[in-house]
Amino acid sequence: MDLKSLKELMRFVEKSQFVEFEYKDEEIQIILKKKEAFVAENVLPQPQAIVVEQEKPKEEPKTEEKQVKQTQEDPSLVEIKSPMVATFYRAPSPTSPPYVEVGDEVKKGDVLCILEAMKIMNELEAEFPCRIEKILVENAQKVEYDQPLFLVKRLD
């Protein structure tokens, strides 16, 4: 199963009334549960690149709370979110420099961080050219599925 299919499956389960969903074939078993619990078994133990797809912000009906947030935040900023429950690492090792710092400009395919899930190190890559405006989580922090990790400004 490729990453795109897995993401589509996760979105389907998230929007459905299922509480738990299980998929199994000869190579992989995936169990998706509501409340952002994600368990995958028999995954190859090697780093795999993850490309986060960002959708353009949709206009939503504005409540007072949303209006306040929109006026305080720059609407040109895009959130890059975690595609999984994992541990966030800014660098490939404790002694290495971080992949990105605030103010860095990255191009499509550049590694932003590592997300460790079940002892598998997954590189999170930029899907578009951007400038890092804010890093929203600390190194070695546990993150949830769909949790914002970076605020970036698109450069394309």
Automatic annotation (TrEMBL):
Biased composition (Basic and acidic residues): 53-72
Function: This protein is a component of the acetyl coenzyme A carboxylase complex; first, biotin carboxylase catalyzes the carboxylation of the carrier protein and then the transcarboxylase transfers the carboxyl group to form malonyl-CoA.
NCBIfam families from the UniProt entry: BCCP (TIGR00531)
Transmembrane segments: none
Stretch forming the signal peptide: none
Entries under Pfam families matching the protein: Biotin_lipoyl
Gene source species: Hippea maritima (strain ATCC 700847 / DSM 10411 / MH2)
Name this polypeptide is given: Biotin carboxyl carrier protein of acetyl-CoA carboxylase
Classification via InterPro entries: AcCoA_biotinCC, Biotin_Carboxyl_Carrier/Decarb, Biotin_lipoyl, Single_hybrid_motif
Lipoyl-binding domain: residues covered: 77-153
GO molecular function terms listed in the Swiss-Prot or TrEMBL record: acetyl-CoA carboxylase activity
Listed CDD domains: biotinyl_domain (cd06850)
Keyword Zinc-finger in annotation: no
Annotated pathway: Lipid metabolism; fatty acid biosynthesis
GO biological process: fatty acid biosynthetic process
Region (Disordered) location: 50-74
Keywords: Biotin, Fatty acid biosynthesis, Fatty acid metabolism, Lipid biosynthesis, Lipid metabolism
PANTHER family in the cross-refs: OXALOACETATE DECARBOXYLASE ALPHA CHAIN
